[in-house]
Design goal:
2 domains; Rossmann fold; alpha/beta; elongated; Arc Repressor Mutant, subunit A; 260 residues; single chain
Length: 260
């Protein structure tokens, strides 16, 4: 029996995770391309087509209706790191076979493969469909310029803390820097680092304080000022609450002091 074919299209420089989607590579004869190569694909037909996104934008989504016109009978899969109700509705109206949000579990991959296999088998027993014009309107959130992946944008927040931790840094400031709303920034930061931004900033200041406390010649008041605390007493309270000991006790017990 002829092996089924799969056209795997990586959009906007996204690469496929071969380990996660290895069942696709076992089940199909896969041709992996970038979206810039789509118009040069010469095969007359594909059994299945998969578009691999991170954050779908107008530039990438427009290839799905074009592919559906070109290969109207092929089930189209869509992988995306971030989705929304509007995107799901758009995918349904555009006759996307299945929309999967990354990371995709092994059970989801198996489920999709079973459905695709059934669809391809049924299609081969029927006459080829005629191309149809797809006029589904693109979801609103895709009409803006493509943005970097969330983790890459959060790197800007981390760098901002390293540079400006001596002064107060409101969440709204770093949210704007990361091109997110404050509420979304808080959610994404907590998901990425397992602490809130406020906790991350406090931890960063305490790490810097512990580094400076390893210098026995530097007064605690100077350490406090060096990490953004104008009040040494407040610094001592915050340090003790977070570390369980006062700055002076930490300095006395720290093995790094003798090696300074």
């Amino acid at each position: 029996m002829t092996q089924k074919t799969l056209l795997w299209i990586n959009v906007e420089r996204v690469r496929a995770d071969a380990a996660a989607y290895e069942p696709f590579w076992r089940m199909f004869r896969v041709t992996e391309i970038n979206e810039s190569e789509l118009h040069s694909v010469c095969a007359d037909a594909w059994d299945t087509i998969c578009f691999n996104f991170d954050f779908p934008a107008v530039f990438g989504l427009r290839f799905i209706p074009e592919a559906k016109k070109r290969w109207p009978s092929a089930p189209i899969l869509m992988l995306t790191q971030q989705t929304s109700a509007e995107l799901a509705v758009w995918a349904l109206r555009s006759r996307v076979f299945d929309l999967l949000t990354k990371p995709v579990s092994t059970d989801e991959v198996k489920r999709v493969l079973e459905r695709v296999t059934q669809a391809v088998g049924a299609r081969r027993s029927q006459a080829e469909r005629r191309p149809q014009v797809i006029a589904a309107q693109l979801p609103l959130e895709t009409r803006y310029r493509p943005q970097a992946p969330v983790v890459s944008r959060l790197d800007a927040a981390v760098a901002h803390v390293a540079k400006h931790y001596l002064r107060p840094i409101p969440e709204s400031e770093v949210a704007q820097l990361c091109e997110m709303s404050p509420s979304r920034f808080c959610r994404q930061f907590k998901a990425a680092f397992d602490v809130t931004f406020v906790e991350y900033l406090a931890n960063y200041r305490m790490d810097q304080a512990k580094r400076l406390l390893s210098n026995p010649a530097m007064p605690v008041a100077d350490v406090a000022a060096a990490v953004g605390f104008n009040d040494p007493s407040y610094f001592t309270r915050v340090f003790k609450k977070q570390e369980g000991v006062s700055p002076s006790e930490y300095r006395a017990w720290s093995p790094e002091v003798g090696d300074f």
